[in-house]
Amino acid sequence: MSESTTRGRRSPFARRDRTPGPRATFAQLLPFIFEHRPVLIWVAVLSVVGALASLAQPLLVSQVISIVEAGEPLGWIVWGLIALVVVSGVISGYQHYLLQRTGEGVVLSSRRRLVAKLLRLPIAEFDTRRTGDLVSRVGSDTTMLRAVLTQGLVEAIGGTVTFVGALIAMLIIDPVLLGLTVLVVAIAITTVTLLSRRVREASHRAQEKIGDVAAAVERAISSVRTIRAAGATEREIRAVERDAEGAWEMGVRVAKISALIVPIAGIAMQVSFLVVLGVGGFRVASGAITVANLVAFILFLFMMILPLGQAFGAITSVNQALGALGRIQEILDLPDEDAHDRELAPLALVVGEANAGVPPDAPAIEFDDVHFAYAATRQDPADPANDSPDEHLPEPNVTERQPVLRGISFQVPWGQRIALVGPSGAGKSTILALIERFYDPSVGAVRMGGLDLRSLDRAELRAQIGYVEQDAPVLAGSLRDNLKLGSPDATDAQCEHVLRAVNLGSVLDRDPAGLDAAVGQDGIMLSGGERQRLAIARALLAAPPILLLDESTSSLDGMNERMMREAIDAVSEGRTLIVIAHRLSTVVDSDRIFVVDDGRVIGDGTHGELVASVPLYRDLAAHQLLV
């Protein structure tokens, strides 16, 4: 195991609570909504038309009562009232459909933005964040944004028209009854305003707890074999249940606060109705108003309270959405991997013959006094397993930076095979990570063709490099999907050729689907050696000028290792190859071997030279019976 797994990477069984992320503002919510401006404008127009149709109904009812009292025929007024009711219903149904569809559009656009951001984040972010929590932000948190549109925010436009129109009509009918009504409504609005902030805070914490559950489930599922082999199934079930209970408790807290807000509109309506009915009845008896006016006032009262209830619902849904948006915005506000590249190199260069700035005799790769360190944080006393580096927590939590490379300097000429050997944790995998520019050096420079990697376009740089990681990740999908990940234009014939070159012909032949054969989640349908060879085949298919192989033969038996070496020998001809290996038998014929220990190069040369001059290498070779 190399230092890539020992530098402080978070244990899959470790757990910790992250510092709460920033709270979103309503202004940050608007861009998600305004992406659908044309539809929302049309919905707003429908909402206003529906409000006007509703406001006309009490006036017609009042006219009906007056006509009936006068003993005159109703005539067209009844049909007009029926038409208004039908129109209001049709508008309401169509408006509901548009809002639901637009709400789904908001969820889709937010997921697109979040996924695009996630896949462009610096590698360091993935070193310190839980995969399940990130998945929860894409799935659960984005869904919360739908409620903003489907639970009253846009409808509040028409509701405002209804509310104001009802107030004006009620003022004309009876200012005294209106004054009593406004008093009750003012108390309700004040109460909702005081509770709304608590809804946002509780919703934010509830979404964090949901993220904890997703992270716990992802951790348990991804390590299910290890958990069962260790007899830890019941303990892990209880651990996930504790996270689920935490999410339940926060959900109940949101429900309690919402339960205080939701009935306020109903209570306000009932109290207002009783006050209006009692005082209004007295005023009818005294002759201050007519029965028709009292009925119209009561109908306008209901129309005023209804949008008020919608507004309270909108306040609740918006605050819940803002709680979730805070977690989404926390990711969206992070800089992309290349966010500061223009500051480092205002004119990103391209590697290749067309670049006149490339010195003709410059080495393929050069490390010039490179120092590098991963950030370390204090352990949470409640979580002794938390040893992951996290440079994104607040500064008081950062204790020091753990040095990994301490003045590394070496050169790799074009077309040569170079090996990096040394004990685990020496810094070998970090060297490859710096060449791929997953990280930048703390001090010093890494160069390709004489050019500082920080002056090169990242995409162009990585197009020059084939990289096979130590754990040889295989993506869920088919053999073809995995092979064409870095070579989308490769033909089936090329795919089959490279599979047979790495001794995967049996995998190709044993399934009638051929290249369409499924490999399963994380390549579970392949053996460890087959997964490693498939990852190597993926890199070889792209045939880049430089190949980086990190423990590329560690999972292979003797026969497959020999065939793999032959395949690499064939494909590396005329290319630069940098190999990390613990099994020295795979690299003894390298052009040059660098011995790395404690972040430094302590010797370089051929196998024979190193056996004679470097005690550490001699000990490694002796343990593997190579001396």
Automatic annotation (TrEMBL):
Main location: membrane
Residue ranges of the TM segments: 39-56, 76-94, 153-172, 178-195, 257-279, 285-306
Name the record gives this protein: ABC transporter
Domain ABC transmembrane type-1: 41-320
Species per Swiss-Prot/TrEMBL record: Agromyces bauzanensis
PANTHER family in the cross-refs: ATP-BINDING CASSETTE SUB-FAMILY B MEMBER 10, MITOCHONDRIAL, ATP-DEPENDENT PERMEASE MDL1, MITOCHONDRIAL
A GO-annotated cellular component: plasma membrane
A Pfam family recorded for this sequence: ABC_tran
Domain ABC transporter: 365-623
Chain residue ranges for the region called Disordered: 1-20, 379-400
GO molecular function, one term: ABC-type oligopeptide transporter activity
Gene3D superfamilies named in the record: ABC transporter type 1, transmembrane domain, P-loop containing nucleotide triphosphate hydrolases
Lineage: Bacteria, Bacillati, Actinomycetota, Actinomycetes, Micrococcales
Family from the record: Belongs to the ABC transporter superfamily. Lipid exporter (TC 3.A.1.106) family.
